Amino acid sequence: MLSNQEVAEELLGKFGDQVFDFEEPYGLLTVSTTREEIIPVISFLQEHKHYQVIFLTDLTGIHYPDVPGKEFMVVYHLHSLVHNFRIRIKVSLSGADLHIPTLTPLFAAANWMERETYDFFGIIFDGHPNLIRILNIEEMDYFPMRKEHALEDATRNDKTDALFGR
Amino acid sequence: MADIELLPHNVPTNTELPELVEDLTTLNLGPTHPATHGIFQNILKMDGEKIVSGEQTIGYIHRAFEKIAERRPFYQITTLTDRMNYCSSPINNFGWHMTVEKLLGVEVPKRAQYIRVIMMELARITDHIICNSILGVDTGAFTGFLYVMQKREEVYEIYEEVCGARLTTNMGRVGGMERDLSSTAIRKIHEFIKSFPPVLRELEKLLNRNRIFMDRTINVGPISLERALSYGFTGPNLRAAGLDYDVRVMNPYSSYEDFDFIIPVGQNGDTYDRYMVRNEEMWQSLKIVEQAINNLPEGPYYADAPEYYLPPKNEVYRNMEALIYHFKIVMGEIDAPIGEVYHAVEGGNGELGFYLISDGGRAPYRLHFRRPSFIYYQAYPEMCKGSTLSDAILTMSSLNVIAGELDA
Question: In sequence order, which ranges of B168-267 are alpha helices (DSSP H)?
Fold first, then answer.
């Protein structure tokens, strides 16, 4: 079994201040890094003789419109099947420059996950072999999971919080 | 779990592909072809009858569940999870409820956990029934399908007894079950445990050592363990490739550590191995159901968390406390804690994960489903490269790609 402390110290020793914001929400080690370092961090974990984090569980994006300079976030969930150890890695991106290196050379699974993230949020994965929309039609000219697209008709006012005393 | 050793595989590599010839046939397999469930489009490039390459178009049943979930209180998202893997709805329901319980810190009593285990394993049985019998239909054996569909009907009757619905179950609540198991439901579960093995044996007799079936499935659509791990395979398809990764054993949830069962592991990662792994999993699931129903603990069937547990309707009309909390929950006046949680359950065909980010409001700020089918299907062209069209159909059947889960 690996402890979160052990992995966090190893990452700090290897990457210094390029990894930051260590957290443990519900026992899952969460690390933030920059987009320049994301591929080295993940390949370091993948090639580590002892950790063997060889499984990409999930890759997704989040939109935080209220955080200036860090409007978008890409979240990676990785899993070491040998030690049953999960790690979550986050990368913040600014809305003006939505580029991040692709993970497809390391994991074949990243291909469609990145396409889905591009489809929903418009995050561009540099070096992806086939970055086109996957679930929506090609002709769409907006990215539906961004928060500015309301789910319902914006002219409706029968569900406002004021009516419920909130 | 033992260390992963990549065993040498006797999987034939498809290196004997022809050189790229000029006149490849482009064949559109799907989306209206019956074998593609009406929603997957495969554009295959064929040289004679060999498949050279393939491209897929998906998204024909995309319903934007992740977007809809951003407007809904937690208890209403259950209805969305039902419609993802519609062959095993209870697993999705309870997976979602467990995620929310993890976020809220609610401890579910033992009895509710056991009832959940029973329902989840019955759901797994139905999921595998459909996958294996449809695989038989795709090879031309319609009989086995008719044998086991009757048993699926019995499972649906059990669901009906427990929650009132059959296919989209909406079973359970955040913090426990909606209602206790009735005596009729318990009787029906016991009857099912007795009556299911003979039928499953009939299906095994029909297919397992059948010359035609074996010729059609052995070494069809193989995938090596390295590629399967790289593609993110989980569940029966990864176990068929030779790795005993099961969420129920690795990260036990809902009291799975109390039960005694084994994980079947295949060897070659081909269609026959996937079939056999699912077949053995049905026996193991039946074993778990039997243990759970025989050792069903006494006690409450919902957690002592009135702020989060939606009270049953008949309580609401009689009990003032229940009425107040019901109103508060439905109106979304009770806020969730701020945090993010990832929880995975062993779904019908792999690791079904829920990544939930809460900003303290009544609805999730962001909810992402890690859907196993979505991850399987991108490996499909690689798996059927070099095989014939009829083998490609079998490969798709044995992957058990469920349309609703693929597109969410």
Answer: 183-207, 211-217, 225-230, 235-241, 247-250
